Amino acid sequence: MSLVLPDDFGQTPKTKLVLPEGMEKLLVQVCCAPCCGAVLECFKVHGIKPTLFFYNPNIHPRAEYEKRRDELIELAQLLDFEYVIPEYETKEWFAAVKGLEHEPERGARCTVCFTERLTATAMYAKEHGFTHFTTTLATSRWKNKKQVDAAGFAAQEATGVTYWSEDWRKEGLVTRRYKLVKEFNFYNQLYCGCVFSKESAVYQKDVNIPAIKTACEK
Ligand code: SF4
Fold this sequence. Notes:
With 218 residues, the chain is an alpha/beta fold. It is built from eight helices and five strands. The chain has one domain: 3-Layer(aba) Sandwich (Rossmann fold).
């Protein structure tokens, strides 16, 4: 099913976006269409054209990865944003989280997962002349923004590329996010992404709650 631009697209509640000093070229790590709809709308309204970087080797299995990837590509094309899709290589991600399989969501495994993805993003940014990078990983209120920011700043430290730690939940963006998820009718994700989140007891319980639209909205 093709995505269609909602009639009210452009009505971002975040009408004043203050850009980081010296930002010339922005790379945005995007995890899925539901998480980035309201952020991309805000960029569009402010005339900012970042490149989207879909680096998510955590997503399991491949079929789920491809569903999320293809929807993100469709959204990027609809909104006329450039995007980069690195190869789907999961080996390093699994090696990084080894021993943390039984951690709960927002625990130590997620710290490693965020750090791995944002470090790869910052490395790509460095190699391709981006001055800044940011991420949509913390757009859901169920993600720990401090944990995501710690990973972002660690990636900045490792590469020298500046992490833009804007809070993409403030100024009405959470409400706007949920509205756009419904209006676009994005794919209904049932877990955060990795095999461990899929198999977790929380997932087993939560999939039976009808109010849940996507895993990112839990
Ligand atoms: S639960 Fe989500 S953030 Fe945590 S390790 Fe799995 S995919 Fe990464």
